[in-house]
Amino acid sequence: MAGLATLVFVISIATVNVNGLRAAAKKGFVEWLAATEADVVCLQETRAEVAQLPAEVVAPPGWHVVLAPARAKGRAGVAVYSRVEPDAVRVGFGAEEFEGSGRYVEADFGAVSVASLYLPSGEVGTERQDEKERFMEAFYGFLVRRRAQVEAEGRELVVCGDWNIAHREVDLKNWKANRKASGFLPEERAWMSRVFDEAGYVDVARSLLPEAVGPYTWWSYRGRAFDNDAGWRIDYQVATPGLAARAKQTRVERADSHEQRWSDHAPVTVLYSD
Prior knowledge:
By secondary structure, the protein is of the alpha+beta class. It has 7 helices and 12 strands. The strands form 2 sheets. A 6-stranded mixed β-sheet has the order 3-4-2-1-12-11. It has a 6-stranded mixed β-sheet with strand order 5-6-7-8-10-9.
């Protein structure tokens, strides 16, 4: 992993919602982490405090680990694993309501800041959806300010994670049946468009695969969603334009079978290089 200021720039970043880090560790996450070639790994929905996690998760060989659990036990939680120690770490994004919510952590590596985001999932007609909308409003303002900050410093930012919104019809299999469901509401999709079109960030996977269906990153455990590839693309790497221009390849690390899954999400890995 090298900084943007060096002559040769190469960094591989992976992101995945683990759907409970303790459970994932027992089902294959530890083995996946040992095998991945990623330089930085962003996790969401860890749902655990440091004391609750085994040593192979808290201090795996060859990794520096930053855990940002939620104040509410058993909820949310984000993390950043990296091959080198971060230059600096920031937890939260300055919104008072969401401080301590375990939904945002950002780490600096040379001229690149890598963030792990877990945007609320929401549920139409409930307080959960209201919370999601408040989060979106506050987070959009942060994204605008943060881009201006990093670019003024000659740096780049990538926000990795579970954004809990499928942006376009090609981002979920059964889009017609989900037009009134949280995660594909018109106002949520419009908000994502603002992130890209107004705030100026880039959906890295979509920039590399402009017309591809999916590739999906989440499949319900219900029914045969995984076997039928009836999924949603809700896990993104959203980058400032300078870093996005360096993205060379992306892949969704979909398990070979339902039985081999260690989360209902799959890791999304992007290689950035000059």
